[in-house]
From TrEMBL:
SUPFAM superfamilies: Hsp33 domain, HSP33 redox switch-like. Pfam families: HSP33 (PF01430). Keywords: Chaperone, Cytoplasm, Disulfide bond, Redox-active center, Zinc. One of its GO terms (biological process) is protein refolding. One of its GO terms (molecular function) is protein folding chaperone. InterPro entries: Heat_shock_Hsp33, Heat_shock_Hsp33_C, Heat_shock_Hsp33_N, Hsp33_helix_hairpin_bin_dom_sf. This is Hsp33 family molecular chaperone HslO. It comes from Sulfitobacter albidus. PANTHER family: 33 KDA CHAPERONIN (PTHR30111:SF1). One of its GO terms (cellular component) is cytoplasm.
Length: 325
């Protein structure tokens, strides 16, 4: 355990293992990173909550990827919130921070007064991992089920990866003494690594979407259930902080499971957009195509959906027929 100041745990993910239960996990706290994602947009409250939940899931899941890899989570739905997309960029070097970004596409006129999850209709939850040049990207998809994005992520891991997984999240606007209202979030992820159940491996059973408990048997199921019962006792303030550091939360919840912690990963809000990337994306278009994109002011413009950056380009300088100086 470390003796870092409590506020020094903001925007970090702490990996851990429960030696007595053969379960591993992560505990995350997001503050400035979460604010950076949400402050770029004028989201209605329901959409803010969905993006905050997705960002926490991304930080917890993304911590496992390697240096310079990219993890993307995406929700596509037929509801008022059409899409939520988040990216997690692994550190550029050992000890460096990871970067996270996210945005949502929605129809403001169709939003209801219902709960945030009610703004998402039928659709799917997708996980994509980009391992870099020369490597085939990985993609897995599962239906949106369970009544929350966290439950949809659990179902994804059970169905697509056959890994029993549990998320416990808390997020919202926080006002600390002498400070301004801002977004904070925290969460715990548990994951068991057993062999899949015979029903999962052989394609038998009811045909329904797999749940975590379908994948564990015997002592493994007992260990998994016990860890989940302990996690049920966590409260929102323990998750969000900052009154108790994450290592203290783990000891309070799982002291009999012998928690072992590893190096924490810092997470910053960050975007990879640039003028060069915009030019590259436009390089497939002819001069005639570029002309259709040109504004009345004689400019080609582009906006980053993630960070709000605005790019203004000379139409003669973009496309595969661009003039060279």
């Amino acid at each position: 355990m470390t003796d870092a100041p409590i506020t020094d745990w903001d925007d970090t993910v702490l990996p851990f293992q429960l030696d007595a239960s053969d379960i591993r996990g992560r505990i995350a706290r997001l503050d400035t990173a979460l604010g950076g994602i949400l402050e770029q947009h004028d989201y209605p409250p329901q959409v803010e909550a969905l993006v905050a939940e997705m960002a926490l899931l991304t930080a917890l899941i993304g911590q496992t990827i390697k240096l310079r890899w990219k993890l993307s989570l995406q929700v596509q739905s037929k509801g008022p919130v059409r899409m939520i997309a988040t990216d997690y960029y692994g550190p550029e070097k050992e000890g460096g921070p990871a970067r996270i970004r996210g945005y949502a596409s929605f129809d403001r006129d169709k939003l209801t007064d219902g709960a945030p999850i009610d703004q998402i209709g039928e659709g799917y939850f997708a996980v994509m991992i980009d391992q870099g040049k020369g490597m085939t990207p990985y993609q897995g998809i599962a239906p949106l089920v369970g009544g929350s994005l966290a439950k949809a992520a659990e179902a994804y891991f059970a169905q697509s990866e056959q890994l029993p997984t549990r998320f416990e999240l808390s997020f919202g606007k926080s006002t600390e003494a002498g400070g301004e209202e801002h977004w904070r979030g925290g969460g715990v992820m548990l994951q068991h690594m057993p062999k899949a159940s015979p029903f999962a491996a052989q394609g038998e059973g009811s045909g329904e979407v797999l749940q975590a408990e379908d994948l564990v048997q015997g002592d493994e199921r007992e260990n998994w259930n016990r860890a989940n019962i302990l996690l049920d006792t966590v409260d929102d303030l323990e998750l969000i902080g900052p009154s108790l550091e994450p290592s203290g939360v783990l000891l309070r919840l799982f002291h009999e499971e012998r928690p072992r912690v590893y190096d924490r990963q810092r997470v910053h809000f960050g975007c990879t957009c640039s003028e060069d990337r915009v030019r590259q994306s436009l390089s497939i278009y002819s001069a005639a195509d570029i002309e259709t994109m040109t504004t009345d002011e004689g400019e080609v413009t582009a906006d980053c959906q993630f960070c709000g950056a605005h790019y203004v380009l000379d139409p003669k300088s973009v496309g595969f027929e661009a003039e060279t100086s």
